[in-house]
Design goal:
Length: 39
């Protein structure tokens, strides 16, 4: 699942560039992974 680490790193970079807080990134990632689990 190396792609997961890459995705998290990419989301962190994008969020930082967009000025989002770490909490916003974590909440978005959590929803994303929850959808993956229930898909």
């Amino acid at each position: 699942m190396a792609w997961a680490s890459v995705s998290v790193a990419a989301m962190s970079g994008v969020a930082r560039a967009a000025g989002l807080s770490v909490i916003d990134v974590l909440q978005h990632a959590n929803r994303y992974f929850v959808r993956m689990e229930w898909a």
